[in-house]
Design a protein that fits this description.
The protein is of the alpha/beta class. Helices cover 41% and strands 16% of the residues. The chain has helices spanning 19-38, 56-66, 88-99, 116-128, 141-150, 172-192, 228-247, 269-279, 301-314, 344-355, 380-386, 394-411, 413-416; strands at residues 4-6, 13-15, 79-83, 103-108, 132-135, 155-158, 198-202, 251-256, 259-260, 282-287, 295-296, 299-300, 320-321, 324-325, 331-336, 342-343, 360-365. The strands form 6 sheets. It has a 7-stranded parallel beta sheet, sandwiched between helices. Strands 1-2 form a two-stranded antiparallel sheet. Helix 1 (19-38) packs across helix 6 and helix 3 (88-99) packs across helix 9 (301-314). The protein is globular, with a radius of gyration of 21 Å. It starts with a strand and ends in a 6-residue tail after the last helix.
Length: 422
């Protein structure tokens, strides 16, 4: 029998797990710990021990990047450490923070999960906007301690993670290393900081797993992950609760729904569909049982950025000091989606229209690799708390993406790294 219990996330309620579901979940955590302890670091991680970060010039660059702009209209500015800063969402969030006057320091390991040259181009874009991006690993405690000794960060925007549902079947170690050990590493450095920063971090809509009811609400159960990626994000939410409860860290989790747009990830369908359509290659389009369409709540990057900034701006201060909790601290989780699921077949039709090329469609049954049939976000909680209101429909967003894609890959990264296209 399923029971409802009071959630610690923003006063919302969630399904309590049955005994068997709890057993499955905590077995996953134990397996993750086993990999963390006994397996070597994943091949996609950069060798942070070889990255040099020292000297007066390096320290000066960190401090200058972290310093808020003094001549802006509002005097209440943030100093934010953005992990995964050379990633898709990380780049856009870092630019938005810097453009409004906040101090930003980026951290990224530039791994090779997808083409590192795209990440380097994003890094160039950020540095041209005054954001210093440090090459290093979130599991490098010595590096994190150095950064927190140099800068009194008000907030941490933790976006570094091993992304991708299907890749988890090839390289499970990397998900444990980044999404579990990496998250703990960030919480550990934040708990001993004085004052402790508020933390906003990227969870995922994948935590809803095998839920069949739509739209997905923060109220819904999240104890049936359909992939290892989803399980690591679910584990992250439970770990966040622990650090909030014991150490007084103010923590906000964001469940992103299929983010797309300029400077995006090449492993995402809209990106490699565009590439393959232009090359005349066939594209695989999956369908569910009884020929049901696979649909996603595609969310444009600008809408996601507004949600990230809203979460940062409404995050309350952490309440711990010296690693000890003084009083209860804020703990929240929000959906950030577009609220309008679109069949993947329609996405392909829009791309055909924008690219003026007919796609070679290869319809296949949805494989059992962790993908789910549909996603659909209920964003009423985010709307209530910080006015989140997605405004970009899929065709408008894809038009901007295609414009960037054609420009970027026609003229090379050097030209495009000097400008933003969102």
């Amino acid at each position: 029998m399923m029971m409802m219990e009071k959630s610690h996330y923003g006063g919302h309620r969630r399904w309590a797990c049955s005994c068997s579901a709890r057993l499955v979940f905590w077995s996953t955590i134990l397996i993750a710990v086993f990999y963390l302890i006994f397996q070597s670091p994943p091949s996609t991680s950069s060798l942070h021990s070889n990255v040099k970060w020292s000297g007066q010039n390096w320290e000066k660059r960190v401090k200058n990047s972290a310093h808020p702009r003094s001549n802006s209209k509002s005097g209440n500015h943030l100093s934010v450490l953005v992990t995964g800063a050379a990633g898709f969402v990380g780049t856009h969030v870092s630019l938005a923070l810097k453009n409004r006057g906040d101090g930003v320091v980026g951290l990224d390991n530039f791994n090779n999960y997808y083409d590192p040259s795209l990440k380097r181009a994003r890094q160039k874009l950020l540095e041209n906007s005054g954001v210093f991006v440090i090459e290093g690993d979130i599991n490098d405690h010595e590096l994190l301690k150095k950064l927190f000794d140099l800068v009194q960060f008000t907030h941490v925007m933790h976006l570094a993670a091993q992304a991708g549902v299907r890749y988890a079947m090839e390289n499970p170690d990397s998900y444990v290393h980044s999404n579990i050990a990496g998250l703990v590493s960030i919480f550990e450095i934040c708990k001993i900081a004085n004052p402790q920063p508020a933390i906003v971090w990227a969870s995922s809509s994948s935590v809803y797993g095998l839920n069949s009811g739509v739209p997905f609400s923060e109220n819904d159960r999240t104890d049936q992950p359909a992939s290892l990626y989803a399980a690591t994000k679910k584990a992250g939410e439970e770990i966040a609760h622990t650090y909030n409860h014991i150490y007084g860290l103010s923590i906000t989790g964001l469940r992103f729904f299929t983010v797309y747009g300029p400077w995006g990830r090449p492993d995402m369908a809209y990106f490699f569909f565009t590439k393959d359509i232009l090359k005349g290659k066939s594209i695989s389009i999956f369908e569910g049982p009884d020929h049901k369409s696979v649909a996603r709540d595609f969310t444009y990057i600008d809408d996601i950025v507004k949600g990230c900034l809203g979460a940062l701006d409404t995050a309350e201060k952490s309440t711990g000091s010296g690693g000890k909790k003084k009083k209860p601290a804020q703990l929240r989780v929000f959906n950030l989606g577009n609220t309008s699921p679109v069949p993947v077949t329609k996405l392909v039709s829009i791309l055909e229209k924008l690219l003026k090329v007919k796609a070679k469609r290869n319809i296949q049954p949805l494989p059992r690799n962790g993908d789910v049939l549909f996603t659909h976000a209920d964003v009423s909680y985010a709307r209530k708390e910080f006015g989140y209101q997605p405004k970009t429909d899929l065709e408008t967003g894809l038009k901007k993406f295609v414009h960037w894609y054609l420009d970027y890959y026609s003229h090379g990264t050097r030209k495009n790294s000097r400008k933003s296209s969102s």
